[in-house]
Amino acid sequence: MNFVLNEELIEYTKNHKEPFVKSAHHMISQCLELDKEIPNDYRWLFSSKDSLEQQVKVITDGDSKKVNYIYWNDQASNIEAYCYMTFWRGVELIKSCVNGLNARDTIAPAIAARSLLELSTVFLLNANTLEKTFSKVTFPDKTVVCSTEVEELVVKMIWGTRYDNPEPHLQQTNIMTSLKKLAKNPNAKELMPKYEFLCDIAHPSFIGNTSYWSHVEGVTTDNREKRVISRLTSRNFNADILDNTIWSLAWSSVCIKNSFEMLMKANNSLLDKLSTSNLTP
Question: How many domains does the chain have?
Answer without folding.
Answer: 1
